[in-house]
Specification:
The complex is a heterodimer of chains A (113) and B (114).
Chain A: E1 4-7, E2 10-13, E3 19-25, E4 31-38, E5 42-51, E6 54-57, E7 65-67, E8 73-78, E9 87-94, E10 103-104, E11 108-112
Chain B: E1 5-7, E2 10-14, E3 19-24, E4 31-37, E5 44-49, E6 55-58, E7 61-65, E8 71-76, E9 85-94, E10 100-104, E11 108-113
Parallel strand pairs in B: 2-11
Antiparallel strand pairs in B: 1-3, 3-8, 4-5, 4-9, 6-7, 7-8, 9-10, 9-11
The chains are: A mainly beta (113), B mainly beta (114).
């Protein structure tokens, strides 16, 4: 099993550009999450999904949209990137209980200039 | 809002030394998880402690959950360079009616010098 994979690993955007981050898991996990990690701020939850076709806002959802059309995939979109969205983004998933014992992907480092 | 404070924020020690990392809160958690994150990678779950007073050992790492389930500690015996990384604690709370929450601490960055 590959576990949780994220695409791309690195990306540089200009202010105002859009992009989509892809997260895929092959563990048949029900729940999936998107976090951002910034120095001194720790991990902050952006959006999460409790099942295929459902999404919910986390702690810092503004400027991001998500979709979970297939159980194994969770997409994070930035419609108009801003320098404040420069961060490392992590996707995670859990099996039976929301937020309990998460499996994380390797991360995507995004820089917005 | 539940907060988890980790201390120290940074720790640099020599190989072979012992160390303890603390994770404290004023809130009660159903369980507490510890993760380790190496540079350029995502966090990896090390252990979950569930019962107040519980102690779990993972080779040279000892994890303890406070009696009141508000705090936890991680003790590493005879640290090795391979222990270098960011240690994160995360408190899990279930408040009923399908309401779950996971609160991450900001982490302790450990460097073990050979």
């Amino acid at each position: 099993n590959a576990g949780v994979t994220q695409t791309p690993k690195f990306r540089v955007l200009k202010t105002g550009q859009s992009m989509t981050l892809l997260c895929a898991q092959d563990m048949n996990h029900e729940y999936m999450y998107w976090y951002r990690q910034d120095p001194g701020m720790g991990l902050r939850l952006i959006h999460y999904s409790v099942g295929e076709g459902t999404t919910a806002k986390g702690e810092v959802p503004d400027g991001y949209n998500v979709s979970r059309l297939k159980k194994q995939n969770f997409l994070l979109g930035l419609e108009s990137a801003a320098p404040s969205q420069t961060s490392v983004y992590f996707c995670a998933s859990t099996l039976g209980t929301p937020f309990y014992e998460q499996y994380f992907g390797p991360g995507t480092r995004l820089t917005v200039t | 809002t539940q907060l988890l404070e980790q201390s120290p924020q940074f720790l640099s020690i020599q190989e072979g030394e012992n160390l303890t990392v603390y994770c404290n809160s004023s809130s009660v958690f159903s369980s507490l998880q510890w993760y380790r994150q190496e540079p350029g990678e995502g966090p990896v779950l090390l252990v979950t402690v569930v019962t107040g007073g519980e102690v779990k050992k993972l080779k040279r790492l000892t994890f303890q959950f406070g009696d009141a389930r508000k705090d936890s500690s991680l003790h590493i015996t005879a640290a090795q360079p391979g222990d270098t990384g960011l240690y994160l604690c995360a408190g899990f709370a279930y408040s009923g009616a399908g309401s779950y929450q996971l609160t991450f601490g900001k982490g302790t960055k450990l460097s073990v010098i050979p």
